[in-house]
Amino acid sequence: MLARVADPEWVGYDLPAAEGGPHPGWNRHLEDGVLDTVLEVVDPELGAVVARARYDEYFAGFAGPGVVVHYDGSSNDVGIYTLLRVALDGADAAGLP
Amino acid sequence: MTIRKLFPLVFVAVAAVACSEPQQVAAPERVLYERLCSECAITTDTALSIPRGDGAVSDQLSLAVGPDGIVVGVDPALHPGRVLLFGPDGRIAAHADVGHLVTQGVPFFDPEGELLVPDERHGTIQVLTPSLKPVRTFATVDYPHAGIVLPGGVFVVNAMSRTPERAGHALHLLNPGDGRVTSMDRSDIRQAGSHELKRFPGRGTALRSGRCTRPRTGSTSGMPPDGSSSLCGGMRRGSRAAGRQSPRTPRLRPPISSV
Questions:
Q1: According to the model, what pLDDT value does residue A48 have?
Q2: Is B252 on the interface with A (CB under 8 A)?
Q3: Nearest-CA distance from B121 to chain A in Å?
């Protein structure tokens, strides 16, 4: 499971006003400074969290089983998408099914 | 009867309620989200990097990784009407014309490796081979945005349906076996993509508390006859999306906490 949570060191930005409205616009290159990501492995049959990790980066979502997407944009025009394999270590040693 | 005469009766009623025994609430059978494995840790490893340089892709790119590791994307801003295939260097290696898909949703793969691309406007899903050749189109609920295939072949789609019987429902389970559609009221995730719900390779289903199998409120109706029976195939256990490692790809920092 992937969840987005507020970055405790939330960075304030001077966001440009959105067209036609008072609300500030959103730019993807700001995401890492504003949001963190929590990844959890959940066993629904046992009703338990197997493992949990929190990242300072914002992961946009899953691109497939065990693969998450991160977008690192230094500006509106330049950026890089990274596909990250997610693995669970230690489950076998712990005797989990 | 005056208020003054009623007052003793009200006082007695309130006192009786206040002094009554509290109701015994049965303890839950299990506590959700209980931590199970203190030795377990989640690790990440860079599989592929896709640069935006030279206007190759926009910041609207949606990516999907197939069971055999191929990486495809949909970029409605810079490449409308196309499905992009990325090479090991992270650059566009090929593309397929799917201009008939007016509003492309988030692409995803089924366990057999077929690529599925939702068309939100038409309420359909276009199926393509791993080599991006169109195979067929089948109808789902309207406004499908993203989807996954669960073990057993049940197909879950996140759609902001506007039909009266499904308005306000975010997740829809399509069972190709008996043609039923179950819509779930999940207002808490209406704005989220169901592509955030994925099986973890070989470790059961990483679905939040398994709620997708127990709809809080549901409605069923017949699913339009189509070729979606191919979605009935079971999820391959232990399948892993083996993305390609690019030698130039940066590594993210390790998790800031692992609890």
A1: 75
A2: yes
A3: 22
CA distance B125 to B243: 25
- Which H helix or E strand runs over B198? strand B198-199
Instruction: Specify the pTM.
Output: 0.65
Per-residue HEC secondary structure of A13-75 comes to CCCCECCCCCCECCCHHHHHHHEEEEEEEEECCCCEEEEEEEECCCEEEEEECCEEEEEEECC
Chain A CB within 8 Å of residue B173 CB? no
* Cα–Cα nearest to B51, from B73, B81, B24: B73
As given in the structure block, the two tokens for residue A97 are: 């099914």
B217 interfacial to chain A (CB closer than 8 Å): no
How does strand B108-109 pair with strand B92-97? unpaired
How close is the nearest chain A Cα to the Cα of B240, in Å? Answer: 7
Task: Give the list of residues 6+ apart from residue B193 with CB closer than 8 angstroms, or none.
Answer: A61, B106, B145, B146, B158
B3: phi then psi, degrees, rounded to nearest 5? -60, -40
Confidence of residue A35 (pLDDT cuts 50, 70, 90): confident
Cβ-Cβ pairs closer than 8 A, A with B, add up to 209
Q: Which residues pair with A71 in a beta bridge?
A: A81
Residues 7-26 of chain A with CB under 8 A from chain B are none
The two structure tokens encoding residue B157: 């789609």
Q: B257, A53: Cβ pair inside 8 Å? A: yes
Higher confidence at residue B177 or residue A79?
Answer: A79
pLDDT in tens, B197-250: 444 333 333 222 222 222 222 232 322 233 222 221 222 222 232 233 333 333
